[in-house]
Amino acid sequence: MKSKWRYVPAVVCMVAIFISSSRSGDQLDSVLPWVQKWLPGLADFNPMHYVAYFILGLTVAFALGKRAATWSGCLLNVIICVLYGLSDEWHQSFVPMRSPDPLDLLHDGMGAAAAALIVLLVLTVRNRRGSRNYTGR
User: Using CA atoms, how far apart are residues 54 and 22, in angstroms rounded to an integer?
Assistant: First the structure.
């Protein structure tokens, strides 16, 4: 039962992405000036795809547990995130003044892949240092 709770952060992240992508183009345009006060270099919300899916990739890695420290777990993480990104782009086709964009899906995948690879690297290094056979090289 404990391991099922590990999926909660990923589900919460997916809900947040769904809610954000449910906003119409007008709603997003009205929020952009406020966000630009905090992030002055932000011209539009495109970089947020990297950020949102990087966070989703981290939460999926948490859900995968030890499997996230394997190449197959890393690949599974990216597949889960990209499939969710695909469903999100489809969902946007029903939102006023929004449309699916293959580049958004690419950015989603890049954010997820970066998170999955960082988790793989960090967990691999941590596991090597924790093993009895670690020589410090």
Answer: 20
From first to last of the 137 residues of the chain, give the pLDDT tens digit. Answer: 468 899 999 999 999 999 888 877 666 666 667 677 777 776 666 778 888 999 999 999 999 999 999 999 999 999 999 999 999 999 988 988 888 889 989 999 999 999 999 999 999 898 887 665 555 55
Q: What is the DSSP string of 54-122?
A: HHHHHHHHHHHGGGGGSHHHHHHHHHHHHHHHHHHHHHHTTSTT----HHHHHHHHHHHHHHHHHHHHH
